[in-house]
Amino acid sequence: MLKRIVGIGLTGLLLLLVSAGSASASEGTAFLTSNDNDAKCFLASVLVDVEEYQFVMTCRNLITPPDANRLFYQAWGRRKGVADDPKTKTGGLRFGKGAYFSLGDISTGKLNGRAREAFEEVLVTAEAESGAGQPTLSALVVSGAMQDINFGSASQSNLKFSPTSTIAKVTLVPTPKSVSAVPQRSVGETAARVFFTLLFIIVIVAVVISIIQRRSASR
What we know:
Helix content is 26%, strand content 27%. By secondary structure, it is an alpha+beta fold. It has a four-stranded antiparallel β-sheet with strand order 1-2-3-6, with helices on one face. A four-stranded antiparallel β-sheet has the order 5-4-7-8.
């Protein structure tokens, strides 16, 4: 029972190390160039799930078609830890698999897709047919190794506060609306003004009525 537990623990540790190595190998960027031509490609890959990488690729100066006998550009990933076989030029074998696996055909200089295996190098070859099973290394166009993502200065925040610094607490108070100054009057003064106003109106009305009656009597 103890041996079984130890074996399960060692197996889990091995899988953890393998997955960690895969992430560092395939999650990153690659610049693909060549000394024989002006073609250039850029690939970015991100680990989105367990043993699953999503990548995008763009190329410049790829002549279409490559030549009269080869009409397609195909991208390949080199499996991590697998070296080329100089005798066959198709890559050494590892657990029945070749050193390279296809990432897909490049159409109009672009490619995006997903990979289920870790890869540490990317290359582009010219192929006679679409979806070739093995890369034709003699028709290599560009290649480049995967590099870790360089976050640069983006990983450092531009906002730097001292641990002992304090921020003054500010209480926001709504700005009072401007109110025209109105003189304040007492209740007595207001009542007097109302009384004299009514008295004035009554006098005016009485005068008007008196004038009307006199004119009526004179007729």
